[in-house]
Amino acid sequence: MPNYTAIERKWQGRWEEAKLFRVTEDPKRTTCYILEMYPYPSGSGLHMGHARNYCIGDVYARFKRMNGFNVLYPMGYDSFGLPAENAAIKAKSHPQRFTEEAIRRFIRQQKGLGLSYDWDRMIASHTPEYYRWDQWIFLKMLEKGLAYKKRSVVNWCPECQTVLANEQVHAGKCWRHEETDVEVKDLEQWFFRITDYAEELLDGIGTLDGWSDDVKTMQRNWIGRSEGAEISFPIEGSGKRITVFTTRPDTFFGITFLVYAPEHPDVLELVRGTKYETQTKAFIRKVVLEDRFLRTAEDREKEGMFIGRYATNPITGERIPLYIANFVLHEYGTGAIIAVPAHDERDFQFAKKYGIPIKVVINPPDFDLDEKRMNRAYVGDGAMVNSGEFDGMNNRDAIPEFARFFEKHGCGKATVQYKLRDWLISRQRFWGCPIPIVYCDACGIVPVPEKDLPVRLPDGFAFTSGKGNPLEQCESFVKTACPTCGRPARRETDTMDTFVDSSWYFLRYCDPANAEMPFDPKKAAYWMPIDTYIGGKEHATMHLIYFRFFTKFLRDLGLLRIDEPTKNLFNQGMLHKGGVVMSKSKGNVVSQEEIAARFGIDTARFFLMFVAGPEKDMEWDDQAVAGSYRFLNKVHALGTGKKVVTASRPAQLSRLHAAIRDVTADISSFRYNIALIRIMEIANYLAAQEDVSREALEGLVLLMAPFTPHLAEELWEHIGNKGFVSVAPWPKHDETRIDKALIASEDYIKRVQADVRSVLEIIKAGSPKRITLIVADAWKHDLVGKVRVKLEETHDVSKIIPAVMDKAHAKEIPKIVSALVKNPSRIPLVMLGAEGELKAAKAAIPSLTRGFGCEAQALTETVAAKKGIAKAAGAMPGKCAIHVEK
RNA sequence: GCGGGGGUGCCGGAGUGGUCAAACGGGCUAGGUUGAGGGCCUAGUGGCUUAGUGCCUGCGCGGGUUCAAACCCCGUCCCCCGCACCA
Known about the structure:
Largest sheet: 4 strands, parallel
Helix content: 25-40%
Shape: globular
């Protein structure tokens, strides 16, 4: 077996030495920016699941590079984050140590995979050279009013010991800790005003043609735009008003109560000093603090209470009782709702439970509702009733009318609401980008001046305890001077969410060493947008929203000219083993080292790209890998052992060009598995030939180069080519060189050979003494008859077997077979085809008859070309007779 | 409940109106090669049938459109992923 380890080392070394994959801006060339989501460098290193993800991008990058594009294909590390910090706490060390060790290991492994990154552009977000620009962007956000600090109820993960953004809370659990319930704290925290971009983020989704529908749908739902109306009601005995948001202003006359979210600040004020105060406080505590996420489950029992106050309907003057309830959310809309039990299921359940009246204002088309007999809300459409001037209207038509109606009466207007909330970026952790803020007793909140950036994390600092944010314990960091007045002041000890780092890293790759700016706008204009972004779907409502937001912000800052970071998002599938996702925590990882040692890394690459389409989940199969290994061995033997001829081999080249055509299309559309099947077909075909034309062999090597680059380089060199196949031009297929008839005729020969086998099997059963076979490859069916006549003139033939696969002739076979069995003495088969093919078929005869205890003899004669048969067949005439004696 | 994806041979997976359902790989069976082999080569691998290139069946289930359906339409069951009282 070839020494794949040596081959890999040799070529990885040469690529590195030649800086083969380094790119620079070249205005004359078309760019192609291919990017995989940069990884968190975990201490456990890479396994086959990672390998698959990177290979998907690498194949594409190599393909595009060979196609002449100026390919930007970089790698970097999302190197701030909790695991390194936790490891440091445990070891009383510094997270930088763990992080940089992990990065070194990642790089070594990624190089070992043969990934064609431009390593000169590598970045790591924990370096001051990188995170100073996080801080710079933060200051710009602050300047534009998009970064702000506010006190609010926030999500707290007790495991991470820090707050989380809404996007990082999944079904009440921390995104990193499936088991950990997120708690609630009331804290003062930094936010980014992503909601300012809600409308644009939503509209922009329509332009993301190359994103999958489900990711787009998830983003739409996450942003959650709804149109409706805001209505406000004066509260009796108080100067205050209660303002609500509703998407169903048409149900206005059906309102029988109003509900506040329990944590709404007005609630306490309204009950202060009343007999409801104690009970209200207890209810709030229960709902808000104990029940924060449970309460939002759909099947949660609706609970609430009357708070002793009434509002007045500004139109009808009716008294409307005010409630608080667990199903009303403070964060959405105005934190208060109108309740129309007749036409909303939640309101209905609540009204039934607490004995609140129900008032119908919309009737279904076919009957009238009776409030006393309703057992659920009617949420459908219909004609308005009990609604004053709106009576008789269709409720849908009435919705826009109501907005005008409220405006006329000065109690409301049409508005739009979003579910998207501002992005909480503060984290109470050490290993993140420091927020560049100083607190001064005299000057208040003071931004660190740009010239003082970066605010560096302390280096020599050793963790002493696992309690709280370690940064708070570091006096040398905390104590500083106020940038404005120079008096002693304290630094902000919160660091930024690591999703801030990853929101713009793709821009830094365009200009990774820039010390003046986060990136040169000219360079970004050259490379951006990302042509193909590869990563998991799990970031649909996290990173994939944030990086769009940053792109738009940096555009508004004048640094970018694009509206979206990428129009093409490719979501790769997961690698499974034993039916579950391959991961260290599941204990089912297959290590890169193990596979590389057993089969070589090209085998791993090949297998990972071959088994399933890259977008699909696939199962790792230890046994099946061996199949890929066998194939690569075969190709290696083909490339190094087979006789190579310069002569044209039309059949080989026909197949090669067909393969080039298909493989090119398949790679372009990420159908790698199909591309590899085509490659296997052509390779297997060539391997079965006596010799192989140089052109065909080179073509095969070129087609394989993106998938198995080391093997391809080795063979490329062996054939006698200079330079690297990795940067050789991708082969262009030439349709005129694909001789379909020739390919078809070869395929027919194979089938004829199979037929001969079948016939011989039967002969064996019938024990003939002596037979003669003439093979008829009648791929021009109409020739069979002519040939038969022709042959009967000159030969002693008793039967022609038209050994073709088409149905019409196949029907004759049983008859012929019976004739053969009954009278096996002289059964002729005739074969027509190109001369070379006939030779091949003839050469195959001994092997075909082997094992039958027969002596085989092949006789060849030429059928009269002068009769025009050959011309009609588009092939050289010939016949092949087999004389078999037992 | 809503949204998205999917149900094809022993397995991983192709094929999305017809000329060929199961490409390609794995597994299994038989034969060959070999001193030997977890190597290589060849053939077979839905059912029926003495045999066949024949017949039947067949792409979750039930209907439908069509000369023609794994593929299009309707209904239904199951699996996976996301979102889930957002007024």
